[in-house]
Amino acid sequence: MTPKQVLSKYWGYENFRDQQEQIIQSLIDGKDVFALMPTGGGKSLTFQVPALVMPGVAIVISPLIALMKDQVLGLTSRGINAAMISSENTAQDIRVLLDNARYGFLKLLYISPERFFSENFRHNLSFLPISFFAIDEAHCISEWGHDFRPSYLAIDNIKKDFPQAPIIALTATATPLVQKEIMQQLQLQSPKKYISSLRRPNLSYRTQSSDNKWNDLLISIARNPGSSIVFCHSRKLTYELSTFLNSQGVEADFYHARIPFAEKEKKQKQFIASDRLVLCATNAFGMGIDKADIRTVYHMNMPSSIEAYFQEVGRAGRDGKPARGILFYDEKDQGSAFRFFKAVMPTKSEFLHIIKRLYNYYQIAENELSPATFSFSQRKFAETFDLNRRKVKMVVDFLDNQGVINVASSDSGSRVQILISSKNWVSGGDFEHELLNYIARTYPGVFQSSASISEHQIAYHLSANRNKVRDTLHVLSSKNQIKYRDASIIHIRFLQIRNDNNAAQQLWPQFRNFHKHRFDKLADAHFYANNQDVCTSVLLLRYFGEKSSQICGKCHVCLPEPKASQSDMKQELLRLLQSQTLSLKHIISHFRHQPQNMITELLQKLVNEREIIFIFPDKYTIWKNQ
């Protein structure tokens, strides 16, 4: 079949978009390809279609299991033979999948970059009829990219081990410097380069100064109906903000990485099916979520980089209809972000001290390597040696990224089962009994089997510290009153021998440079948020190396919100209240182009002058003479 026939048969489209057809043809012709395409621009089709046209199996390397699962599910639902290999597969599973690929029963095989660390796995791949390699999220291979992952460096062996197989590298967020490094790292041979414009004409980018972000979010949701994502910087904030929105009559839910897998899938399905749900989420949400009609993407906190912001806000408006990204920004945000960054950045002595303590914690001596896998709690480790927990996290994450250690966390979340029988149940007034009673009331069946819990939610409802909840659960477990699996306890494995001199001479300079680069990206993001002079679309495109002077006409710079006179607003407000009683929320929504403080000041003035009446708790009506 031709590419167009494949497109029509499996996806129901008659024509390709933009440069998709040229990219596909270059790959079919055996050329290496570099493609920069906007989020929602149809990157996946550029390797999925040629995989069905070309003989053999396409190997797709992707950084996220959730992304791979989503794509494999989408392909198999269309009748396309696709599969993935992850840590969830047994050795027998992997052998069967490789045999299926070898004998022509698979057209696309998704794997993680970590698989290329294994020489044995690369050896097994050499027996497959590989059509090409597709490197998704290719910016992860660049140390100058916003999401650098050292595991991606392992895939620079592709050209050496599979010289005949073409490579297609795809990304939606890469500056010119990152583009160059991607092609160098992957050793692409005279690659065909396709740089699509990242301009999204239907998507407006707005930065809104706010000293009350929650209230301004509520107002904006009323003004901009439809499915929305609200990106938050912490798991706690996703829960608290969704609770607040629900209390104000907005249908909202929360999402973060610690939610059990089954619950994540349920929340994703509900969000995809809804046309009005507001999902408060950390950046764990979004990758691979196939929902075209997201109308607004909000950011309650400054993203770590322009690349991260551009990728997240790009989830809005994939159906081509008007959509917007709104970033709430407080003047204090920048100072707080920079102070926080510097406060948690370890000095050289702190960096080396944390590494030494980590090895000593598990009794690993200089020039030794332990083959064991250990349980590891960053909180307990930090408390044992009186270390700053955030600095510990930065060092541990860095060592994990550099392949010095491997830190494995559980996606299944915490679980609890109450072991006390209901007839032996004793009530009490201390926190242990309060916690047990809450769990018994909240989680059905918790006496018969373990239930998935969230320490964040429990702490919130009991007005307690999250660590107090977790510590109390461990105490109850030690008393055999409950069975408790703490998701915060992860596992650590040491991959390199202990070498204190190497930590000082090599790891520290790498760590310092890595975080200096992160700080520069954070500064760029705040510069963007503070911008009041250049069209935001133009500014973003210039950042990614696209020269453009065509303004969008829709951002806060191009189209500032018009301000009406107070006299005009007064007449309109009195007219509205003449026939009905309205809530503050409805009044603010009606005057959606006016500053909120101007509206509230007018309402207070009219109440004082006895032209309107305030009805507790938040309604207004006209004053009628008796």
For the secondary structure, the number of strands is 22
Report strand %. Answer: 15-25%
Summing up helix and strand content along with how strands pair, one would put the structural category as: alpha/beta
Alpha-carbon distance between the two ends: 82 Å
The helix tally amounts to 24
Low-confidence parts, pLDDT < 50 over ≥5 residues? Answer: none
Main pleated sheet: 7 strands, parallel
Give structural notes:
The structure is a single chain. The chain has 24 helices and 22 strands. α2 (20-28) packs across α3. The mean pLDDT is 88.
Give the helix/strand layout.
Elements: H1 3-11, H2 20-28, E1 33-36, H3 45-53, E2 57-61, H4 65-77, E3 82-85, H5 91-102, E4 108-111, H6 119-125, E5 130-135, H7 158-161, E6 167-171, H8 176-185, E7 192-195, E8 203-209, H9 213-223, E9 228-231, H10 235-247, E10 252-255, H11 261-273, E11 278-281, E12 296-299, H12 306-313, E13 323-329, H13 331-344, H14 348-361, E14 373-376, H15 378-384, H16 389-401, E15 405-408, E16 414-418, H17 431-442, E17 451-453, H18 455-461, H19 466-478, E18 482-485, E19 490-494, H20 500-530, H21 536-543, H22 566-579, E20 582-583, H23 584-590, H24 596-608, E21 612-615, E22 619-622
Parallel strand pairs: 1-6, 1-7, 2-4, 2-5, 3-4, 5-6, 8-13, 9-11, 9-12, 10-11, 12-13
Antiparallel strand pairs: 14-19, 15-19, 16-17, 16-18, 20-22, 21-22
